[in-house]
Design goal:
Strand order of the largest sheet: 1-2-3-7
Largest sheet: 4 strands, antiparallel
Radius of gyration: 22 Å
Order of helices and strands: HHEEEEEEHEH
Strand content: 15-25%
């Protein structure tokens, strides 16, 4: 949609005006991306990576005491702290009455619980091999913040140029 609006701005007003409008639309697009799509949970043999908006936590399997689901996946650490995953599987609503259920036993398990089982399987496999020790590392998502800085600089330039031209 943003691309169509930018093409429309080029057709109607020209390249210069489009370049003055673009950072505002990209700022909205960046905000939608961060709040809607960026949060996620990724697992591998060494641990889990939980990204909540602009913060990333790398959790080694050796530091995890329990993995559960309340409203979202929660990793309970060995020091008692919990890390909730905004972008992981979430406990959904039960199916609506009147819908014909799928007869296969695998389909009766909600998708969030299937995903939780996959995360737990990886955690148990890592515990059996004894891998995944180390500290929990928390950091900012530098690439996404860098994109925000570029868009903010572009917005500032557009405001300055619009003030001089207008």
């Amino acid at each position: 949609m943003t691309l169509l609006l930018l093409v429309d701005a080029v057709v109607r007003a020209g390249w210069v005006e489009m370049l003055l409008l673009a950072p505002w639309m990209l700022l909205v697009l960046w905000f939608i991306y961060v709040t809607t799509f960026l949060s996620h949970v990724a697992i591998d043999a060494e641990g889990a990576t939980v990204q909540n908006l602009l913060r990333v936590a790398r959790i080694p399997w050796g530091r995890v005491d329990d993995i559960g689901i309340r409203y979202q996946v929660q990793f309970t650490l060995d020091d008692g702290r919990t890390v909730s995953a905004f972008g992981g599987p979430v406990a959904g609503r039960p199916p609506r009455p009147g819908l014909r259920p799928d007869p296969s036993p695998r389909s009766r398990i909600p998708p969030a619980l299937r995903d939780l089982d996959l995360i737990r399987e990886q955690w148990h496999a890592a515990n059996e091999t004894g891998s995944g020790a180390g500290p929990v590392v928390r950091r900012w998502d530098v690439r996404t913040l860098g994109v925000l800085a570029v868009i903010a600089a572009w917005v500032l330039c557009a405001v300055i140029i619009s003030g001089v031209v207008g």
